[in-house]
Amino acid sequence: MAMLRAAKHAMRALGSRASDASPFARTLHASTGSKKIVGVFYKANEYASMNPKFVGCVEGSLGIRDWLESQGHQYIVTDDKEGPNCELEKHIPDMHVLITTPFHPAYVTEERIKKAKNLQLLLTAGIGSDHIDLKAAAAAGLTVAEVTGSNTVSVAEDELMRILILVRNFLPGYHQVINGDWNVAAISYRAYDLEGKTVGTVGAGRIGKLLLQRLKPFNCNLLYHDRLKMEPELEQEIGAKFEEDLDKMLPKCDVIVINTPLTEKTRGLFNKERIGKLKKGVLIVNNARGAIMDTQAVADACSSGHIAGYSGDVWNPQPAPKDHPWRYMPNHAMTPHISGTTIDGQLRYAAGTKDMLDRYFKGQDFPAQNYIVKEGKLASQYQ
Known about the structure:
- By secondary structure, the protein is α/β, with parallel strands linked by helices.
- It is 33% helix and 15% strand.
- The strands form 2 sheets. A 7-stranded mixed sheet has the order 2-1-3-4-5-13-14. It has a 7-stranded parallel sheet with strand order 8-7-6-9-10-11-12.
- Strand 7, helix 11 and strand 8 form a beta-alpha-beta unit.
- Helix 7 packs across helix 10.
- The radius of gyration is 22 Å and the shape is globular.
- The two termini are 29 Å apart.
């Protein structure tokens, strides 16, 4: 079959390097028989019955249970993912497929990969597979894929909302109302228009480009930094300027939006030193990954006023512990990881997950852009 031939070709290409890398190397194939598929999602409890389209939770199970079980496959779904005695650990030794999400991530470590003797496929229902040890997955011959583009609109819209919330100093006004207060001066002394401000995105992939397009009507000065320059036509249409040097772009920005994946190069990218070089009073929106920021450096800069506002929905780790410093720093507008899991986003990533499972059963390739690890090689954005 096509997938089997591709896998064999990959193993020949990797040669002894792949076999030396891990004794657990395996190939993705469409062998007949029942597969054990495990999904890890957040629990919705009383909210599960409030919307029939709410499929991204344990109770909704991506809406694929009947389909999988009608074909003779076993489908285990849980939210219990931490510790040696959790539900996920019980199924690791004999599962064939693990479905995870960025919103309630099951951290797939090298240790877990070594225990998973039958594992062939790791699917992310959504975008962002950094909760998986990708190098270990590649060494073990696993395929890692996600539903690329499934929540691009959801995240870009959320980023735009967060920018406006910070620029207009919205949250203190809301808190005044629910607390029975009324003090216009306490809000307006640090509320601004978005028009005329310089907004820079660190990363201009699908989400970054869409955000820049959404920002154009606000008449901002738009900058972007990325590994790749946009096509000239799109760059001209959006009116964004490419900045090759990140450290030259950042001090120009009134608003910085993080849109880059978490990789070895971007982990801790915004450390104390880099944050110190930003414009005093800068606003930062981060819906990418919490670990791109130095947690304490962000909290300290918010406390000193160097960062005038910080908003995002990503934390390190997730779920965030109750003592996480970002919960208590001033001038923040943080939420749980929600931007990419709107109902519309859920329906898109559920459909994409089902499509890839169907292709897996049939021995067919996935859409090329969905692969994060294929044939022992990481996708370019993770290299």
